[in-house]
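input
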Amino acid sequence: MVSVQFPQKLQELLNSSRYEASVRSFADATGKILQDNKLVFFPSFTDHGIEHINNVLQSAVDLVPDDVWEENLLKDADAAILIGSVLLHDIGMHLRKDGFRELIRPGCRFRPVTWFDQEQTDYPRDRPWHELWTDYEREAKRFSDRALGNIIGEEAALEWSFTGLPESPLRWEENHLLIIGEFIRRHHARLAHEVALYGFPGADVNDFSPLTDYLGPLADLIGLAARSHGISLRVCQAYLDDEYPDTLRPLGSAVFYPMALLRVADYMQIDQARAPTVLLQLRNPRSPISQQEWENHQVVLNITDAKAPRCKMIQVSEKLRLATYLQLNELLQGIQHEIDHSSAVLDEVYGHYEKLGKLGLNIRRIDSNLFKPRFQKKLPYVPKRTGFSVDPNLLTLIVEPLYGNEPSVGVRELMQNAVDAVRELHAWCENRDADMNKLQRPELPDAADVLVNFIEQTNGSWILSVQDRGIGMTAETLQNYFLRAGASFRNSPEWSKEFIDDTGTPKITRAGRFGIGAFAVFLLGDSFTLETRHADCGSKSLRLSANKTSGLIEIERQNNPFAIGTKIDVILKRSSIDKLLSRRFGGTLDSTIDADIDLYRWTKPKLHVSITKQNGESLPVRGGRLIPPTTKALPPSWSTVRSDEAKYEIAWTFENDVPILYNGFIVEDPNTWWNNNMRHKSRQAPSLSIIDPQAQLPINIQRYDIAAPLGVAEKIGRDITYSFLAFHLICGPETPLECALKPRIYPLRVNAILENLLHEWHCDFHNAKLESYCTSRHGFTFTDPYLVSKIVESTPIIIGYSSDSPPIEKGLDSLFDQLFRQHDYHIFVNRSRENSMEEYNFIQRLNKGSPAIVSMQKGDRDLESQIRQSKWTSHEVDDYLIFYNINLDDNAQAELSNITHQLARSIQQKESYDLKKPFAFTTSVKALPPQSQTSVLGEIWDECIGQKLIPFDPKERKDLIQSARQHSQLGLHIEKWQEMKRNNSKWATGEWIQQRNMPYYRDLVPHSSPAYKVPKWASFFTNA
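output
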């Protein structure tokens, strides 16, 4: 069995020493852990077993100059610290499952070392392991695809994500082990120190005693030296100054020397022996980082003394890829940096002393054939890091063309950042149970959270000032994100750790997306000033000024009491002023907002826009209607659709004064989106409010369009159909006469999809926008072919009439009465008083193939009409009535009944009059072919109501509503319409028609109104 071998010179230092037996016993105990070199959490890592320990020890000895040995400058304590630290430096990577579980258990024996448990300069405090793991687990749930791929492999990352560590280790998959391994790798230097003091996690103290049991207080120095290979030597120096003040050789050891030897010796283990090809094939590392590490070791042929004094030559194979060449180049430069750093610290600590000043490294320089031009020329590629890069000037050149030279994009970006900052401060306070009211925040007009103020200067120029009561920015945020185009802070690990919960769900709904940061300002003006104070930065604030050509930007620390939040002032360009203000504000400066500024419509956070004139007078600017930021607070005129795959929800409404909102900001006109994403546009577009906490919805870079279909358009159309059906159950016609003379208009009314055709015929046929019913004496349905074929039991008669005609003479009235008595079902067309459909227009519509008779729902869209080519023949009977023999498709064939001929003979006996002619025809109903697609309305009707009419009888209607409420989706809409009806909502009463200035709807007078004389033939319905 391979055992830990002490190099001869170290053994000689230990001979007859009080430390000899203890160091050997500890090495044997450690060797039992290291001997199998099976790294449970690091299956793809290079050799970290006993062989590696022996190599590091020998390399460390080789780094010691001869005169150090000759003059006996090293003592037994130095040998004990060097051997102990080499044994411990990577021991954390040999942790087993039970050891890891012990480590992260609250109250475990492994606790932060004194001094390291406090915040130090250049070193954050060590926290309890269970807290570290909780934070890391939360971070791992939010790993980007690249970050996860670097740990478990790129292919695995496409199919697997970390959702948490199963309670039982039996359920831990390999990917779970790799995730744990990354956690241990980050903290293994600290763990080495604590193993020296407390033992090995998962091992009984009888099997692996703490090093303190062997070596007493020297164990702390050994642990510190082991920790030092993962932290700065200057941090270790600060620890020693505190623990061993004014002591050059604490406990008899020149402790910085073993530290330096360990750091450089470990770095030098890069030859093939540490990554043999056979192990590479057996272990098959999955992550790109592990693969690269193995490959780096494989191409290093040997490490020898160079011709130059105190220099090592590292020979590298010419058979290496560009990525390996670049990484190996960086690795060798890293070794040189470590040699320089360690030598500098040794000189600072010991250089003033005659003997200890000789404690240096045997090598001071690293050389390699990799650096030689001759080697580089033999490579089959150009050995340079090449990729896309951006000239700093390019950003200012492309910002205007990229964003369409629209200053409103800049205003939107500043608004979004401000609104997001306010939301972040709320979440930040909740995370800490902090009282936001105790924070020093600015007081803004109208109790606003964000103030957008256009300020007129005395010289006629304008400044846009955007100030928020948000979380503010740190210097790091300014440097790394705000001043870097494309670097979104809200995509950073720091942001995720603070504002994403354990399930991976953001705690706030953010509006910002693209990280254009300061560059949005340059759409507005050429220079800006920024002041900011972060909530966690005490009373100090930051200030900077910049213009589009700034090469160096100075971030000033301010001691003035600037309130928490951010304020940006931009001197507007003339072109920006013209676009943003002149159309509404130019000249009179009234307080009506321009569309380019009216960008935000949520009630919270509250945004206030104002204009400040030269004399200091401030004019508040009125925007559009605001809505609550959550679907729970929306009124019943709104409904919510949630996507299955993506975690966003869409609230829709028939209120037409709200555009499409994305997290509170306007992105698109509803009609544009509806027309682009719905195959059939038979109903008006709803307004939408999209709530997308995870920013999954594709938005174009100008933020004025949804860049791709929502994927829930079908759900919206289906949900509208549920609402449509619920409306007619609660607010629908209550008598057959209402169906004929005063149809109830659903707020998302039928589009006039025939407007172009009707314009061609020189008529204004508005009743295409009304609902079309098929009624009986007992109830009604809609003229949907599927519903008619399933529900209507006999031949319906289709009546066309002019509602603004004088009362029909008694003879004709009697004949209509006969028609109604002979037919159980009736379909009416032309209900408009002002814009009647004359017989000629009806014929023309048939010729054009328009759906005058039966509205048909096609596919999976709401209430779409199928265009049908129709052939017709007519039988004109004097001037009173025209009957048509319509030859439609296979679903409905027109036929003339006996009563038609009887009517014709009767009408011929009447005197003619020059009025718009009524017309009528009958059509037989046939079942739809099996291959015919069921309409969405028909499908929902079957699902919720069954094959029956909506009854006119109040009790029967009430029973049907009670039954329909059992359907989850329809039930929600029934509740909404019942609430609106109870509250006399304009949507239930029809008051919205008057508000929208639609005379052709407003003139539809209810049958109960004395202003309208009901035709005698209609009395059939009232008497039925």
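quick obs: The chain has four domains: 8-376, 404-620, 632-711, 719-1017.
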